[in-house]
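// run 5 | inverse folding | seed 20
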């Protein structure tokens, strides 16, 4: 909710097949192993809050640590998209 410019960017660090199955609306997919090679894309996020997510919240911790090491503002979505689908939006398919 709220104006788009005040909302955090959602960064999905899962693999493409996971993202195709289910993803949070308006999220950006950059798989965890590609973060370093796609660092130039991450620079566009500088100054914006970023919420990193994955399936259960493990890969997103690594992704968040990487973004923080580059001086970006990031947090990990605890429990990943799986917990989000249980507690926030039950219409999202679980896998």
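// decoded
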């Amino acid at each position: 909710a709220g104006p788009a410019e005040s909302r955090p960017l959602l960064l999905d660090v899962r693999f493409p097949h996971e993202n195709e199955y289910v993803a949070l609306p308006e999220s950006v997919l950059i798989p965890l192993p590609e973060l370093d090679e796609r660092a130039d894309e991450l620079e566009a996020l500088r100054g914006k809050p970023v919420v990193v997510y994955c399936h259960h919240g493990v890969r997103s911790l690594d992704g968040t640590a990487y973004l923080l090491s580059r001086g970006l503002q990031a947090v990990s979505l605890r429990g990943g998209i799986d917990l989000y689908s249980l507690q926030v939006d039950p219409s999202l398919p679980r896998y």
